[in-house]
Amino acid sequence: MELKLYVDRISQPSRAILIFCKANGIEFEEVKIELAKKQHHSPEFAEVNPMKQVPAIVHGDFKLFERYPADVGKRAKIHSVLDWHHTNLRRGSAAEGENLMSASLATLESFWLEGDAPFLLGNSKPSIADLALVCEIMQLEFADEEDRERILGPHKRILKWIEDTKNATAPYFDEIHSIMVPIREKLKELKMHSANIIRVVKYEGMDISTEIPPTIPRLMKIMHL
Ligand SMILES: N[C@@H](CCC(=O)N[C@@H](CS)C(=O)NCC(=O)O)C(=O)O
């Protein structure tokens, strides 16, 4: 019975679950739900995830639409990281901007990544918690280099952890994140050519400026694009 992942690679939790499955040799079928085309609002997808969000997982008649670790023993600790993620870092990257993002990065560095272990919770290998948080931070790739450097540059421990997570999940991390490159280039181009960016962005023929998930326009605003 095949595991189906309903994802859009533009979505950071989708990328986390894709890398997790690939890095763990878990076979799955990738079902693309394009947020830009509002496919997550289709009646078929509502059957999969009534919350109408990606990622979602289906295995036979088992449906799951939040990310949970398979290992029950580690679940509680991983949940505490993921809860912190949703109430801090994720709000910083999506809704409430640079100040919250910077405060969250400071806490991540001084508290969650404290100690000698390379990964969260004292682990020697990355868990879904590392992937969830690193994929969230990777959303900063949509920002200008200057802005990214200002926000992330002071956090050397975080930069090392991102590199360690990339290396530990190679080649899947870069493969899954390659979707960001053309979009970043478009955003850069746009910033150079237009003050009124929200109207003109085209990516593969679609107007990503108005159609993309809410995170990106907010990010563009946060990053002064
Ligand atoms: N708590 C969920 C969050 C899922 C989520 O926020 N998905 C976004 C994409 S990153 C989405 O589907 N947005 C579409 C919408 O809300 O309309 C998780 O971590 O898996």
Automatic annotation (TrEMBL):
Question: Per UniProt, what is one Pfam family of this protein?
Answer: GST_N
Checking InterPro entries in the record gives:
Glutathione-S-Trfase_C_sf, Glutathione_S-Trfase_N, GSTT1/2/3, Thioredoxin-like_sf
Per its UniProt record, what Gene3D superfamilies does this chain match?
1.20.1050.10, Glutaredoxin (3.40.30.10)
What are the residue boundaries of the GST N-terminal domain, all occurrences included? Answer: 1-66
Q: Read off the PANTHER family from this record.
A: GLUTATHIONE S-TRANSFERASE T1-RELATED
**This protein's name:** Glutathione S-transferase T1
Organism encoding this protein: Sesamum angolense
